[in-house]
Design brief:
211 residues; alpha+beta; 60s Ribosomal Protein L30, Chain: A; two-stranded antiparallel sheet; 6 strands; 4-stranded mixed β-sheet
């Protein structure tokens, strides 16, 4: 009887070990398949009638707010015009500068060369000074809109770089301008070099024509 009572716990231990081996041998449960997220609907561009209705880094283009990129035509070369012998900015020209300020603020890597120009009337020296004041007026306005000074450079060409060569009021009005070239520092330097070459060529012509 004593031997039988010893066999019972041994059998129980054997059964327990067998159940542990069976549990260890069982393969892990397969992971549940991931549930694919439904695609988000495309964001509808915000409608607008002016840049001011869009986010700071957007422009209102064809009545829709569009994110600004440096390659945008709207952020390209911009010209503002002046009255004869004046440096004040026309109210009608300010939206062009405000748009350019948005472009510059959206990408601080963009640099702009502001070229000041005048019509053919007056001396070379006077028109160089006039072009300089016009370029500075544009630069100051852009800075007041929050554009970093490091993004801006100015140069004056006076009457030496006309867009139009006719001798009438329509042509003079076209030449009384400040041109903004948002093509980066390299292009700004290229613009200054172009002017220096132009000055050198004019100086050689003057020397050649002197008696």
């Amino acid at each position: 009887m004593k031997r039988l009572s010893m066999l019972v716990p041994i059998a129980a231990l054997a059964a327990c070990a067998h159940s542990q081996k069976t549990a260890e041998a069982s393969p892990p449960a397969a992971p549940r398949p991931a549930v694919a997220e439904a695609p988000r609907p495309a964001e509808t561009p915000k409608s607008c009638s002016a840049d001011a209705q869009c986010d700071p880094k957007q422009l209102c283009i064809r009545s829709q707010c569009v994110p600004i990129t440096a390659a945008m035509e709207e952020c390209g070369v911009t010209r503002v015009h002046f009255d004869f012998d004046r440096t004040e900015l026309h109210p009608a020209e300010l939206p062009k500068l405000e748009r350019m300020a948005r472009c510059l603020d959206a990408d601080r890597r963009i640099h702009v060369l502001v070229e000041g120009n005048a019509d053919e009337r007056g001396t070379v020296e006077y028109n160089l000074a006039l072009g300089d004041r016009r370029a500075n007026a544009v630069e100051k306005y852009l800075e007041n809109l929050g554009v970093a000074k490091a993004q801006l450079a100015t140069v004056t060409y006076g009457k030496e770089m006309p867009l139009c060569t006719e001798h009438d009021e329509a042509c003079w009005a076209e030449n009384r301008r400040a041109a903004l070239l948002p093509n980066g520092k390299a292009k700004a330097v290229a613009g200054l070099e172009r002017y220096e070459k132009h000055k050198d060529a004019k100086a050689h012509q003057t020397e050649a024509s002197s008696p």
